[in-house]
Design goal:
Blueprint: H1 3-7, E1 9-14, H2 18-21, E2 22-32, H3 36-43, E3 53-57, E4 60-64, E5 85-88, H4 91-101, E6 106-116, E7 119-129, H5 132-156
Antiparallel strand pairs: 1-6, 2-5, 2-7, 3-4, 4-5, 6-7
Length: 162
């Protein structure tokens, strides 16, 4: 394995709904404390961030709701699939996140779970929840920009716009 392959991040799981449900203000990278059977399952590419969220308890960052299925070959040494897992960040970063999450509407959402070298990392987002009309507005904006790009491409090619 070359040095480039070791530093490349390979995604295990992504939370695709998060960017639809929340306005992402800022993203952070955090390590995660796992047991051996969890790492084996992640190497197989099995995990879900669908209902996961981050919480700060006693100056420690935890992620709840992340589902990592049991590893079939681990027998009695298996892990609990939806247990709370500790995230590893510097204390100053955790304190900064704590002050932000105490403000109204902010929450911590894991966006992506990936390998960086031999370590498992979590991309954590400081996000604010969207209302239903905000979601509709975001979809309308995205469709409008797509339509404008499509129209601009047709004009560049010399076709007549419909």
């Amino acid at each position: 394995m070359s040095a480039r392959e070791k530093t490349q991040a390979s995604a295990i799981a992504t939370n695709r709904r998060a960017r639809h449900e929340y306005d992402v203000e800022q993203t952070f990278e955090a390590g995660i404390s796992l047991v051996g059977s969890e790492v084996k399952t992640l190497r197989a590419g099995k995990a879900s961030l669908q209902d996961a969220y981050g919480v700060i308890n006693r100056d420690e960052l935890w992620v709840y709701g992340m589902h990592i299925p049991e590893y079939p070959q681990a027998s009695m040494l298996n892990h609990e699939p939806t247990r709370a897992r500790k995230l590893l960040m510097h204390r100053k970063e955790i304190q900064k996140l704590q002050t932000k999450t105490q403000q109204e509407g902010y929450t911590l959402i894991p966006l992506k779970l990936y390998f960086k070298g031999n370590k498992v990392k979590v991309e954590l987002a400081l996000a604010k929840g969207r209302k239903k009309w905000d979601k509709r507005e975001a979809i309308a904006k995205r469709e409008a920009t797509r339509e404008m790009a499509k129209h601009a491409g047709a004009v560049r090619r010399g076709e007549r716009a419909r």
